[in-house]
Design goal:
Jelly Rolls, 280 residues, single chain, six-stranded antiparallel beta sheet, Arc Repressor Mutant, subunit A, alpha+beta, 2 domains, four-stranded antiparallel beta sheet
Length: 280
C-alpha cells in the first residue's frame, strides 16, 4: 500500500490554456471529510480510495466507496461525498483542457463513472510521480504533470473497458500478435486465415473481438492500413501510382485507384497534387 499523502497542490503556470489536458490540482488525505460541489464546478475529477469507506452521492443515488474503488466526475456535475469510517484515505486529481469534453466522451467518460475493486498500482505510480515533479519544479512541472494526468485518464479508461468487456487482458493477448502481424505484412497478400491461425481462436471469435477493440473489421483495418501507407508514399515520393499500389499490397493499380477514390473522394493523382500544393 502506498504511503499516506497529506497535501493539496494547485499548480499554476502561464500558457496552459491550449493544453489538451491540464492538471489543475492534486491531493490526498487520510482523513477525507465532507465535500460538496454544485453545477458551478469548473474541473473534472478522478478520486480513488486507498483505505476506509466513504459515501458518494449524485443523481439521487448513493454509492459506498471503499479501498480499490474509483470514481470520475465530469465538470459542473453536482455531487457530494463524506466518510463512513473515521479514517477515509483518498487520492484525487482535478483537470481541464482544450477540447477535453469531446475527448472524454470518446473514452466513455462523458458521465459519472464508479469502478469497484480496481488494481490501483498504476494510478498510485502516476500520482506519486506527479507529486514528485510538482515539488521539484513548481514553475514548469505542470506541463510534464499534465501529460501524466492524461496517462491517468487512459488508465481509468482501461479499467472501465475491462469492466464493460470482461476478459479484455485475455483478448489483448490474442489481438496484439495479430496486429503486429498485420503491421509487418500488410504490404503483401495477407489472407485472414493466416491471422486466424496465428490467434489460436475461431474466425468468428477473432472477428468479433477485433471489431470490439478496433471499431472495424479485420479486412477493412488492413485496407485502411494500406491506404495510409499509400498516402504517405504519394506525398513523400514521386513513385508512379502503379508502383505505390504494388508496394502497399494492392493487386493492381486499377483496384487501388478504385478503393482510394471510394475512401478519399478523389484519385491518388489528385490527392498527390492537392496535398503537395498544400504543403508548399
Amino acid at each position: 500500500m502506498s504511503a499516506v499523502v497529506e497535501t493539496n497542490i494547485y499548480p499554476y503556470a502561464e500558457k496552459t490554456g491550449n493544453l489538451p489536458v491540464c492538471l489543475r490540482g492534486i491531493g490526498g488525505t487520510e482523513w477525507q471529510g465532507y465535500h460538496k460541489e454544485g453545477s458551478d464546478g469548473c474541473w473534472y475529477k478522478i478520486l480513488y480510495c486507498v483505505k476506509g469507506r466513504g459515501c458518494l452521492h449524485y443523481d439521487d443515488q448513493s454509492t459506498e466507496i471503499s479501498a480499490g474503488d474509483i470514481f470520475f466526475m465530469p465538470r459542473a456535475y453536482p455531487h457530494e461525498y463524506c466518510p463512513i469510517d473515521r479514517k477515509w484515505t483518498v487520492r484525487w486529481v482535478v483537470f481541464d483542457g482544450k477540447g477535453i469534453k469531446d475527448m472524454l466522451s470518446e473514452l466513455g467518460l462523458g458521465a459519472p463513472v464508479v469502478l469497484k475493486g480496481c488494481e490501483l498500482k498504476e494510478l498510485n505510480r502516476l500520482f506519486d510521480r506527479i507529486l514528485l515533479i510538482l515539488r521539484a519544479d513548481r514553475i514548469n512541472g505542470i506541463f510534464r504533470c499534465s501529460g501524466l494526468c492524461y496517462d491517468m485518464i487512459l488508465e481509468l479508461h482501461g479499467l472501465l473497458m475491462n469492466e464493460v468487456m470482461p476478459g479484455i487482458s485475455v483478448k489483448n493477448e490474442i489481438l496484439l500478435p495479430v496486429l503486429d502481424n498485420i503491421e509487418d505484412n500488410f504490404r503483401r497478400d495477407l489472407p485472414i486465415t493466416e491471422l486466424v491461425e496465428l490467434s489460436g481462436v475461431s474466425h468468428q471469435y477473432l472477428g468479433r473481438i477485433f471489431r470490439q477493440a478496433m471499431g472495424t473489421s479485420i479486412e477493412k483495418y488492413i485496407m485502411k492500413r494500406r491506404l495510409w501507407e499509400a498516402k504517405h508514399l504519394l506525398l513523400e515520393t514521386d513513385s508512379p501510382v502503379s508502383e505505390i499500389a504494388k508496394k502497399c499490397g494492392f493487386r493492381d493499380s486499377g483496384y487501388f485507384s478504385t478503393v482510394f477514390r471510394r475512401e478519399e473522394n478523389m484519385s491518388p493523382i489528385e490527392y498527390r497534387r492537392i496535398s503537395k500544393k498544400t504543403v508548399e
